[in-house]
Amino acid sequence: MEKMLTPENDHPAGLGFQVEKIDSMTTLIFHAGGDPGFRTEFILIPEKEQGVVVMTNAWEHQVQPLAVKVLDLMAGNNETDWFTFYYGSTWKIIREYSIEVAITKIKEFVIKNGFDNFHPSILNQHGSLLQDLGRTADAVRIKALNIEFYPKIFQLYNILAELYIDLGDTLNAKLCYEQSIAIEPENNISVERLKILDLKD
């Protein structure tokens, strides 16, 4: 057991377990895994004699935020974890409704609970999950909604452009790259990819 939990060659991993020293008094020992159909998370804090195991019949999203939230509650931290709250709630909406209805409900939900507590990576991750599930057209709608929420983040236009390219929609991809460059002229990635699309035309 000692060997399993001993980091090797300055790499923060033992034999099957990640080992991370948070401070002089706290060590995290953890491992996550999954295959299509399930995901798991395992976290131990030996010094506190605490641990959490999460097992889900779901492949679509990470379960680490749930495990971390349980550890926070065990430590007496009852503050609202807004990222986890919004992440879980908005993904539930996407799973339960058509994409058109989901977009309307997400807008209403975010306005009701406070936009200041929202984060652009939430819808970005949802869009990536939808793409992994073969729902690229729905992913486009969710990432477009993200731009509606955060119109000044040039990277979001780049991400949406890549989705349009996957769908064979070079016109909208070019429009996204152009908007990205308008916001951030030093955005070399968009400049180069726009050149490539122009050459293909």
Radius of gyration: 21 Å
Span between termini: 60 Å
From the spread of the alpha carbons, the general shape counts as globular
Number of contiguous helices: 8
DSSP strand tally: 4
Percent of residues in β-strands:
15-25%
Assign a percent range to the helix content: 40-55%
Helix/strand order? EEEEHHHHHHHH
What is the averaged pLDDT score?
86
pLDDT under 50 segments (min length 5)? none
Major sheet attributes: 4 strands, antiparallel
Strand order in the sheet with the most strands:
1-2-3-4
Name the structural class. Answer: alpha+beta
Structure characterization notes:
This protein is α+β, with helices and mostly antiparallel strands. The chain has a domain at 18-74. It has eight helices and four strands, in the order ββββαααααααα. It has helices at 64-74, 82-96, 99-113, 120-132, 136-149, 154-166, 170-183, 188-200, and strands at 18-23, 26-35, 38-45, 50-56. It has a four-stranded antiparallel β-sheet, with helices on one face. Helix 6 (154-166) packs antiparallel against helix 7. 20% of the residues are buried. The model has no long low-confidence stretch (mean pLDDT 86).
